[in-house]
Every structure is written in C-alpha cells, then in structure tokens.
Amino acid sequence: MRRTILAAGASGKRSGYSSRMSGAAPSAATVAPARALRGRLRVPGDKSISHRYAILAALADGVSTVAGYADGADCRATVRCLRALGVTVHAAPETGRAGAAGRTLTIHGLGLGALTPPSGELDAGNSGTTMRLLAGVAAGHAFRTVITGDGSLRRRPMRRVIEPLERMGATLDADDGRPPLAIRGGRLTGIEYAPPVASAQVKTAVLLAGLHAAGTTRVVEALPTRDHTERALAGFGAAVRQDAEGIAVTGGARLRPVDLAVPGDPSSAAFFAAAAAALPGSEVVIESVGLNPTRTAYLDVLRRAGAEVETRMTGNAGGEPIGTLCVRHHRRRPVAIAPAEVPGLIDELPVLGAVAALGGGIDVRGAAELRHKESDRIARFADGLRRFGARVEERPDGFSVDGSGRLAGGRVDAAGDHRLAMAFAVAALGAEGPSVIAGADSVDVSYPGFFAALDALRGD
Ligand code: S3P
Q: pLDDT digit string (tens) for 446-460?
C-alpha cells in the first residue's frame, strides 16, 4: 500500500508516487507512520564517487565509461558543467539495478589541461561538490570560468577553496567569499596544504589543481575525510602517493581512461539503515552498497545505539569496497558523537539525530560544519524535530535530542535540503500520526526514487 502521498505545492493537487514518475517532483510529502521496515533494496550510485569519476574521466586521454552514475540533480550538474567545458558525455539509462536509478556515462576525455573555455556561467545547481571540485580543475586552465548555483549554494562558503588555489597561482573572485565564483586559471605550482576545516571537497579541489601544477601538491589533514579522490586518482594512473604525512600528487602525469562502476551510496543507505534500527521488528538488507571505511562510521553509531548491524564484503570496484549491509532493530541506547568522529559522519548526522528522537537520544559535538551545508542543518533540523514533538537542544556546534519521549508527527519544512527531507521522513515513520514534509522534492538532489523505495519496505 502506498503510505506516502506526494503533493504538488503550487496546485495543491495530491498524487500517488507513480503518477509523478515522469513529471516534475512535487513539493510536499505526507508520510504515514510505519510499524516496521522489512525487505531488500539497492540505493543509487554514490554521489561523491560519481562526481569524481566524471571529472577525472574528463581529464583523461580517451574514452571512459562510468556505470551506476548517480542520477540525482547534483551529479547531473557536474555532467552539465563538464559539457559546457567542451567534454562530450553520453548518458544511457540503466535497467540492471532494481530500485536504484543510475546511468552509464560514456565520457570522452580531453586530456589534462585541455578543457575549452565555456561560453557562459557554469550552473552547479545545489551542488557544493560540483562547485568546489570544478574550481580546482578550472584553476589549472588558462581561461576564466565562472561557477554559480541556486540560492542555497550561493550562500555557501568558498574561501576554503579560494585560499589554497590562489596560493597555487590561480586568481579567484567571489562575493564576500560566496558564489558566483570566478576562476582565472594559469600556471600552478604545487603546495603543501593543511585545510583549516576537515573537508574532502577542499582536499579534492587542491589535489585536482595539483594534477595541473608544477611539482608536488600535498594535503595534510588533521582529521581524515572521505578518501574517494585518492582511490580514484590511483585508478586513473595519476602520480599519487599516500604516506604518513598525507596525500601527495605530482603534476603533469597523463591520466588513462578507465571503465568503472559506482557502488551504492552509503549516505543514501543510511536512511534505511537508521529507520530499520529505530522501528521494532525491522530488518533491511541493502545490496551493492559502498563500504569504504571513511564512510561507514554511521554503522558504528547505529551499533553503539543498540542495533544489530552486519556487513559482508562482496567485491571491490575501482578500489572501492562494496558489499551487503543488514540492519535489524534491537534495543535503543543513548549515543554521544565526539568531534573527531564528525568528518566521517557529516552527511549522516541529520538522520542519526532523527532516529535518536524515536528512542535512545543523541548528543553531537564539534559539528559546526553542519551550519554550512545545503541549509543550516543544525537550526533547520532542530526546528523540524521540535515540530514533530521532540525535545532538541541546539548549540553552535551541535545538538542533543532527548530519546525518552514519543513523536506526535506534524508539519515540517525541509528547507530545500535533501538530507533533511529524508531524515524527517524517517522520523515520521515512527511518529504517532501522519506528517507533512514541505520541500520534499529536494530528495531529487541525491535520491530521486527515495519515497517509492521507502514505501516498498513498509511492513504494514
Ligand atoms: C563531499 C564531502 C562532504 C559532504 C558532501 C560531499 C564530497 O563535504 O558533506 O555531501 O563529495 O567530497 P565537505 O567535504 O565539505 O565536508
């Protein structure tokens, strides 16, 4: 039975999910409570890995293919920008990945430093990853590139990439550190860089610029962040070295084209894993999902919170471990997240917070970065969960959620933020009454089929 009703905000018309498959996504979802989630699924291709494979393939000498490329708006934005930079990309829909939207891309790489000047501004949409990673690439090209985005992206901080890329020799302009971001690239020189914020996007922007730079570029991280760039660079044949000091790339080495497959996105799997952990009687199995240890900290948190979590490695694609994940509800215990854990959990904190309101509770510290995501994820999360009836304390660098009460459900606003929309939907499953999530169409950013996948697992 369909228990999630998606409604077009403008017309107020209500429709079942199937009627919107080919049309524009609606803006509000009504989510009914669920007794349990049970079943198997695959989630869309990893968003972070998809961006990186597309960009590196564009810089390689020849034709690469990328299977399972994430079908959400963010990864489409990267393809759109690469096309505007002269790269030919063909996208074919996939049929083989039940439940997971994906596309196989054929990317005709132009070679290092050989992108062509765009005729207008590049539109990164909602995607911070697109903007920051392409800033690193544009820094290595001797022309002017301007990258802009939607209202949310134009509020996000870019000084974190401006500063290192200028040190390497590019010239960047922004509006008080916010997009649009104008990059005039040129001759770059390798640097040693210790990012002041833990950010895989910053690390990657610097390393991508480093591919085009004279000498060696090294990034030294205080806390480790996701390492997909390092793994992908090795696969494309870059001169990359990981040592105790950090990750170093030597500029000028040609990249070879490769055929790659993108694992399922653990950050998308996290919504179902967290829901299964929270709802009594639940058991969810997720196949072909990425198990890269820099992305699986959320599974440790779910275990600490009492859930039964099993993983089984089934393979390795492009240097990325892939496997099957099974999560079962058990008891719920309170958990505390320490600052050092935050970079490994940054995208999963909203859903971990949401399920903590259904039992157990959570205390998150050292997560001020959440205020600089697609929305202020501390303020908007706290506001939404309170509207559901939870007791939430908001702090500058985190939040705590009381897990001893019950959620009534209610009307919340996802603030156009895909991860908040999905986190609120998961909390709504455990509420006493139905909930309405405004801005639910934002799930298209990373997971266009999210609500249908959720409905398919309902055990009631
Ligand atoms: C990403 C890194 C993270 C994450 C984002 C994707 C990436 O951002 O929140 O969703 O693909 O590198 P930061 O590295 O800026 O924390």
A: 999 999 999 999 976
